[in-house]
Amino acid sequence: MISVRCPHCQVGLKVDESKIPANLQTFNCPKCKKPIQVSYVTGNVSPDDSDTVILSLPGAKSVKAGRLHVLANEFTPEQVIQLSEGINVVGRKSPSQISATSIETKDKLMSRNHIGIEIRKDAEGNNIHYLYDNKSTNRTLYNSKYIEPGEIVMLKHKDEIQLGQTCLIFEE
């Protein structure tokens, strides 16, 4: 199961990929009843249509539990963040927030809950990493392209994610 956000009303949905018909092109949001387009991918693809939800095909490339390598800049020291199965919310660390997915930074363009990375096991027991913007104020760049609201992309080794002025590299 992966989390999907309706691009129209922003309601969070859980989708069991194993139960999606191979020819499904749209489905209606159970809350707002508007159609949500579906695009099936086996790698990194950013759709031109921001109303498209990206899901992976069975047998898509899977990876071991990943980590984020935070590159140093004038606001942020170099760091490594180990991801764990489930939902990892990643963003700027605040004084009241102590989390393994918090980034030590003075980068005010990075939200405290900037992105989500959901890790789920596929049928073979391998981890697949799904990235989405968590309604951040300043959006998220993924391999130099903005992630659109409701868009979910599948991460692969050496993908670049930019939160504010801080660059992260995903590593398998």
Can you give me a brief rundown of this structure?
By secondary structure, the protein is an all-beta fold.
Could you please describe the fold and organization of this structure?
It is a single chain. The protein is globular. The two termini are 21 Å apart. It is an all-beta fold. A hairpin with a 2-residue loop joins strand 15 and strand 16. The protein has no helices and 16 strands. The chain has two domains: 55 residues; 105 residues, Tumour Suppressor Smad4. A six-stranded antiparallel beta sheet has the order 7-6-16-15-12-13, with no helix packed on it. 0% of the residues lie in helices and 41% in strands.
Percentage beta strand: 35-45%
Helix content: under 10%
Count up the helices.
Answer: 0
SSE sequence, one letter per element: EEEEEEEEEEEEEEEE
**Rg, please?**
16 Å
- Poorly predicted spans: 41-52, 56-63
The quaternary structure here is single chain
At the fold tier of CATH, the topology name of the largest domain is: Tumour Suppressor Smad4
Major sheet: order of its strands? 7-6-16-15-12-13
Largest sheet: 6 strands, antiparallel
The assigned CATH architecture of the largest domain is Sandwich
Distance between the termini: 21 Å
- Helix/strand/pairing category: mainly beta
**Mean of pLDDT:** 80
The first-level CATH class of the largest domain is given as Mainly Beta
The total strand number stands at 16
